[in-house]
Amino acid sequence: MFSTIVLALLVSFALYALKIYTQFARNLTAAKTSGIPYVIIPFYQVNRLYQLSQIFLVPIVRKLPASWTELWFDLTLEWAWARRYEPFKRLGTDTFITVSPERNELYTADAAVISQITSRKNDFPKALEVYESIKLYGNNVITSEGQLWRHHRKITSPPFSEKNNHLVWTETLEQCQAMLNDWFDGNTGKTESKTIYTLADDAMRLSLYVISRAGFGVHLQWPGTEGAHANGGCQKRRRAQSIKPSDCPGT
């Protein structure tokens, strides 16, 4: 009985390894055929198992000699914000492909390539399986393609007009200025260092006020500005004097 279980596990592992190898060989062939520079990586960064194991795997890999990992390891993480153009510069190209056993991904910093991809939607469809987790209430403009995508886009596109984009921009500027004035008592030219203890609350308020104006046509005044009621003197002092919330009675 035990030997049967072991044999079944070994066969399953062998079949899985064969599947991984076959997929990788197919992806590598596709990358070579494209003529675009490519980098082989062992993990697909959106793979759920890899994402869950990063907390354990990343520290281990970072202890390996840099010569083993410097070419590919950062490309298995969310690198675009932290590394920006550095991988492109290191590879000597503005466009490259990462090849993993699961799938290939193309990265580009070339404006002409980006223009082609975004203007030829039918030739560059989205990988819909990546967006399965946000289909909580069914399909939407992000999780769909083709005719279904056009249907959702027709419904959702009106609010994203140039007129409304301009409104969001100007309202955000106005509310940000009001927030800064509140922090610095109207003197945003002050240079002394201070600590803001209400940043999270103020960021949420900023977002809600912009949504209120752009989505519902209601302009809300920032607390403490002319025509608005401040949320109590201590709330005002918390921002102006950088005192802790615990120093205010009733907070």
From TrEMBL:
Domain of life: Eukaryota
Keyword Secreted found: no
Transmembrane segments: none
Keyword presence, rRNA-binding: no
GO molecular function annotations of the record: heme binding; iron ion binding; monooxygenase activity; oxidoreductase activity, acting on paired donors, with incorporation or reduction of molecular oxygen
Recorded coiled-coil stretches: none
Protein name: Cytochrome P450
Cellular component GO terms, alphabetical: membrane
Gene3D superfamilies: Cytochrome P450
InterPro entries: Cyt_P450_sf, Cytochrome_P450_Monooxygen
Species this chain originates from: Letharia columbiana
SUPFAM superfamilies assigned to the protein according to its UniProt record, in alphabetical order: Cytochrome P450 (SSF48264)
Alphabetized UniProt keyword annotations: Heme, Iron, Membrane, Metal-binding, Oxidoreductase, Transmembrane, Transmembrane helix
Subcellular location(s) per record: Membrane
